[in-house]
Structure formats: C-alpha cells, structure tokens
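Example 9 (inverse folding). The structure is encoded as follows.
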C-alpha cells in the first residue's frame, strides 16, 4: 500500500486529494450518527447529522468541509467505541492485514461498521471496488508522514504503534478526557495517580551525648 500511496500523492494535485479525503470523511458521518444513537449521545448525533447535511449540500457532496468553518467540529465514532461504552474490554492487540493496528473489540466492530458505509451499496460491483480501492489508498496516503516518523524515531516500531493505538482509542472513548492512570501501592491495591506521595518530616539529627 505504501508505494501506491506515494504514487497517489505524486500524481494527484493536493486540491483533488483534499476533496477526496473530505468526501470519504463525509461518508463516515453516517457511521458516527448511528453510533451516537447507540451510545445515547444526542449532542454528538446533532453535530454529526448537521455536518452530513451541510457538507453534502453546501460542501458539494463533501468535497469542502463547510461544517467545520461553521463551528461543527469533526468527530469520530464507531462500533468499537460503542462496544466500549457497553462495557466490552479491548482484548488482545491485533494487526489486521491492510487495515493495520486494531484489537479484538475494534476488529469485531469493523463488521457492523461496514454496513454504515455508503461504499458497500454502490453498484455495479466494479464501481464499488474502484471506490473502495481509492478509499484505502487515500487513507494510507494520509498516514505517510506518521509512518515515516515511526520509522525514524521509534526503537521498537511494533511497541510504539501498539501504545500509540491504545492511547488514541482511549482518548476517543473518553472524548479527550481519559481517567487518570491506576497505580499500585506496596499492598497491591490500585488507585488514581492523584499526586506525589506524602513524605514524613525530616527528623533532627541526634544530640551529642558526650
């Protein structure tokens, strides 16, 4: 995918690539809105539905992100985050072919997510596959800078990518306000990292008894 993405960037002007990326992002507003309903997020549903309507009309089928200029920021919801809201754990970390980093919960969530994408309802099949191919290449092209950074800076690419993935998903799950990390004390009990541990006051030096 990387050579295809590099050729995609080299051949297509930035304006066209931006239009395609915005269009694919506009399609994802349907997935966002569906998951907003399942997670009982009325404010998020209103935002994502508003973005879909505005960008699909005033934005020329999503080519231009007019909604962001109007104060409706882009959000991200999917069935993996819905499962998290319902209390399902992440499970082991996975690296899916072509799709990249994931975990068991998010990997299963890709199945219902696929039914919320308009790409799956394009006919004939040849046209559907062509759009899907452009979508995958465009997605990989947006990650070229990130993967180059990982290749240059990470000592362990696998561990770096895994940790970054879980941090991103946790941030999305709690909408930018994740809970403090849990720390274990000497007794094995865990608690929030609320600050530095209290220390005993320093004892005065012993008096010379001579």
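The amino acid assigned to each position is listed next.
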């Amino acid at each position: 995918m990387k050579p295809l993405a590099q050729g995609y960037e080299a051949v297509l002007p930035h304006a066209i690539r931006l239009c395609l990326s915005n269009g694919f992002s506009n399609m994802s507003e349907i997935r966002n809105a569906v998951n907003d309903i399942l997670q009982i997020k009325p404010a998020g549903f209103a935002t994502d539905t508003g973005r879909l309507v505005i960008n699909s009309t005033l934005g020329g089928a999503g080519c231009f992100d007019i909604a962001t200029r109007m104060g409706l920021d882009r959000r991200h919801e999917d069935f993996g985050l819905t499962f998290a809201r319902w209390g399902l754990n992440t499970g082991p970390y996975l690296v899916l072919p072509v799709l990249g980093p994931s975990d068991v919960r998010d990997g299963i969530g890709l199945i219902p997510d696929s039914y919320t994408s308009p790409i799956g309802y394009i006919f004939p099949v040849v046209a559907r596959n062509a759009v899907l191919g452009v979508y995958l290449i465009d997605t990989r092209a947006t990650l070229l800078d990130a993967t180059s950074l990982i290749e240059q800076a990470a000592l362990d690419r696998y561990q770096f990518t895994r940790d970054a993935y879980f941090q991103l998903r946790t941030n999305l799950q709690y909408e930018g306000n994740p809970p403090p990390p849990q720390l274990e004390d000497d007794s094995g009990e865990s608690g929030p990292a609320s600050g530095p541990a209290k220390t005993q006051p320093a004892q005065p030096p012993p008096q010379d008894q001579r």
